[in-house]
Amino acid sequence: MKNPELQIINRLKSGDKKVFEDLFFDYYPTLTVFAKKYVGDMDTSREIVQDLFVRLYETREKINIHSSLKNYLYSAVRNRCLNHLKREKLHTEHTGNVLSIDESLENDIQAKIEQTEFEYLVWQEVSNLPDQCKRIFYLSRKEGKKNKEIAEQLGISIRTVETQISKALKRLRTNLRQYLSVLFIF
Amino acid sequence: MKDKHQNNIPDQLLLKYLERKTTKEEKKTVENWLTDIDNQHHFSQLKKLWETVNQGDEFDLINVEEDWQKVKKRIEHVDKKRETSKLSPAFTMLARVAAVIVLMIAVGFLINYFISGPEMIILRTGQNQDMVTLSDGSNIYLNEFAELSYPEKFSGKTRTVHMKGEAYFEIAENKHKPFKVHTSNNASVEVLGTSFNIKTDTNSKLVTVNVTSGKVAFYETGQEENKVILAKNEKAVKQGSFIKKSEKEDLNFLSWKTGVLVFRNTPLEEVTKALTGYYNQSIVISDSLVQDLTFTSTIDNQPLLTVLDEIILVFNLEYVEKNDTIYLSQNQVLTP
Known about the structure:
The complex is a heterodimer of chains A (186) and B (336). By secondary structure, chain A is mostly helical. Chain A contains 10 helices and no strands. Chain B is of the alpha+beta class. Chain B has 8 helices and 19 strands. Chain B has helices at residues 11-18, 24-33, 37-55, 64-84, 89-116, 255-258, 268-279, 304-315, and strands at residues 120-124, 130-133, 139-142, 147-151, 159-164, 166-170, 179-183, 187-191, 195-200, 206-213, 216-220, 228-230, 235-239, 242-245, 260-267, 282-285, 294-300, 317-322, 325-330. Chain B has a 7-stranded mixed beta sheet with strand order 1-4-5-7-8-11-12, with no helix packed on it. In chain B, strands 2-3-6-9-10-13-14 form a 7-stranded antiparallel beta sheet, with no helix packed on it. In chain B, a hairpin with a 5-residue loop joins strand 2 and strand 3 (139-142). In chain B, 23% of the residues are buried. Chains A and B meet through helix 2, helix 3, helix 4, helix 6 and helix 9 of A and helix 1, helix 3, helix 4 and strand 14 of B.
């Protein structure tokens, strides 16, 4: 385990609330979206991750982490999600085949984690685009509007719209270059 | 004209291609450009980026600050609980000492209780079958080589027994005191009042439960949350942590007790399996044509040879005993 992580864990154990808050802000978005990949529902996902953090604080003295803090958190979220799904299933039907069967079919959990983190990075990069650029980008991507429509709506030239979208893509590519090359899938 | 310069085609056109909004001309141009491996690389990166941009909306739904406030309130509550449970040191010391004394007394009682009772009676069968009526009126029938451990009288909130091997249970109904059977191979069966058969196998480590009447909860000991509910005429098998309900009806699970074997259009292969198990005599079909013949009959406490005679008569077969095994085959004399 890395040294700075060891420090964080020790601080958590001693009840350092600031460190706890930082940890929450760092991991909450990705853990929640990760949970949603299992339970499908955003509200349930948020609850599961919040419960985890509260529990972590409650039992902080007993924290015993062998792998990285990140893996520990993702693992804990995954376990809670699977338990939630098991309980839901038993509510609705009485067949006994334990959900373990699905667990054994689950492909690379690590890939799921990496995917979630990549999604977050991309989202952050898009959020960081300059205002005008971001607005145009959203209209084009989210609302599927044609360049001509966007130009009309914003009162600018089509050329400007095209340039801004190109700029946005170029910027995303550049900032995310290292992650994109790793995730090379054709 | 193949141009290897990867920036020759603007990203916007590639996006159009991704979204299938290109004209025929444009499509051709892009696909031509894609024959180059570097361009493919460039394209797949763009594709990945584009797909992920479209997926990222979920983060918009998360308000970290808001949810943090929720968590913050909860952990403040946690701190408060800890504070209020901190009492004066002198009081705490006194409380600790008192607790230890109470604990010692309790342990003393428990030890006494365990040494002098409740008496667990152990019933074991060898080459005989046996039955016992428990203090609540329940009847338990044990097959050969089985074991049952039960108390003289049931105390506490449940009626609990332990068993190994095969036994048939007729449990007297008591809604207020569930009846629990813990078996070898780590299974548990729980009922309020009903009839069922449990069979544990030392070699395969399987546990099979067949229900005759009522409802039964079947689970791996300690894993009650994953219980399987079985109703009348249902059957399930536990293998390790998995409990699977059986689709096939098992007509003869109780033949060890009743002495009756029922066959209804049963393939001969299964018939010989049932006979092997019941009579403890290895019976094998040595002719593949014979396996699928179906047999319908009810055999009530008959010796094996009588049964075999009936089968060979019906199907024109013959049997031969060799090395402790009986072999069934087609009758050679009358078949050409």
